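Technical annex B. To support the medicinal chemistry partners, we prepared a structural model of the target in complex with pyridoxal-5'-phosphate, based solely on the information shown next.
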Amino acid sequence: SSKLDNVLYDVRGPVADEAARMEGEGLRILKLNIGNPAPFGFRTPDEVVQDMRQQLPDCEGYSDSRGLFSARKAIMQYAQLKHLPNVTMDGIYTGNGVSELIQLTLNALLDNGDEILIPSPDYPLWTACATLAGGIPVHYICDEQAEWCPDIADIESRITPATKAIVIINPNNPTGAVYPREILEQIVEVARKHQLMILSDEIYDRLCMDGYEHISIASLAPDLPCVTFSGLSKSHMIAGYRIGWMILSGNKRCMGDFIYGINMLSNMRLCSNVPAQSIVQTALGGYQSVERYVEPGGRVYEQRNYVYEALNAIDGITAVKPKAAFYIFPKMDVKKFNITDDEQFALDLLHEKRILITRGGGFNWGAPDHFRIVYLPRMGVLREAMADLADFFEHYRQS
Ligand code: PLP
């Protein structure tokens, strides 16, 4: 449990606890710490809600443990559009969000002492689930100077005979990076050389901006064992329904034991939430309302531009422009602000401005020099928040 305390520290740690305590006293806290679209006015498409309503009477029983045929067929067709090789209906599993499938996958894959490469910064559930499964998360660096792309030499330097797999998060939370084809090809090359399974978390794949094309790494690795994760929480703004999926592709011959394990774990949880599965086909087909958000004039696009510019205008703060998702991961000049402890910084900001952010350490980032902002709130709220941040950093010196 002490291991767990470490990896999940920021989910239930002192900064979030302090924010909850302040709220309990009646103070209003601006939460820029969680990627949950609905409270910020991003509505689930009407057609999705209507279709769930209509199908609800038919969703009372358990489904096949992998999921409804109609849901998996729609996911299969999506996989075809993303050029994933060697996908079969049996290799598609639905889950109560990608979260459940990350846990299931790492439990099936990792034996005690097995190593798994995970990005730093990461989405911390990956590190937590690897640890829970008895594995050893080994963090590789994503390089801010290279628009937060994975550092291939760093990845290679961390591979040992115990390394089983590499995780990539593309598009990335918390940096907003989208990896170009050359980087993905280099990762595939490393995985091929060292016989690693590739696990790719692509939950933000439909939230790319500025014309960046999302490429599924599995499409470049027909000869390797790959698992691609996605879902509707972000692209369709329905995080609360709990629906995600994973797709096995590429070389299945060497996945026998793994498939045995995930089938067993999938059966043990009986099935994922059936009403949410029933709207996958509606959500994935036809007109994609999310596109409106990420094009010029759209909320996510305009809010991204504003926050990026406002942060970079603050003396001592620099940020790489996010290309996707709804997060930005700015850097603080630790000398200027005398910052040695990013948790203390997060607490100081919370106390002074009642703004809750997540410190870089919450994403397994080693230095105390970053934090993440969720830029989902409406422009008016963001304007106030950025003015407050500018004011805070004008005088902040950590004592
Ligand atoms: N993967 C990444 C990179 C995420 O940012 C999140 C949620 O923030 C998840 C997975 C979990 O998503 P879900 O709602 O499908 O469980």
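Notes passed to the chemistry partners:
The chain has two domains: 2-43+292-395, 46-284.
The mean pLDDT is 95.
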